[in-house]
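User: Hi! I'm a student and our assignment asks us to look at how structure tokens line up with a sequence. Could you show me two examples?

Assistant: Happy to help. In each example below, the sequence comes first and the structure tokens follow. Example one:
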Amino acid sequence: MPEEVLFKTEDSRSRTAIAEALVAAAEQIERGDVRLESAADAQDVTVPETALFEIELERLTDSETGEERYELEYEIRWTE
């Protein structure tokens, strides 16, 4: 089955603003109802009582410049 992106947003934020967004997300996840919003889009989703939770830290190196970039990802997966 091909992947269908239902919501995506990306912007630059301070570390404090990122932490605040994660706290707000955690509170919604705990309740089970999550609302994802951006200036152009909104999506609601219900998170089940039990789901798979993955944390991943990656280091990527640009092949041309040698510059290193890090990605810290929190992912929640479930099936319906």
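Example two works the same way, sequence first and then tokens:
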Amino acid sequence: MTDTSDANKERNRQIARNEEARQITGNIRVSTWAIVVAVMIGAVLFTLGWIATR
């Protein structure tokens, strides 16, 4: 019974490590998209401001 319990604990640890890696990857993707959108909005606002001052 102890062998099965130890095997289950190790399996659960491995599942937790895999899930953590997936969450980190997802967070990086979301951060990258947020930066891209912010840069695009900034570029549009800069262009509109530049056009307005000319």
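Here is something you could point out in your write-up. The first helix runs from residue 2 to 53.
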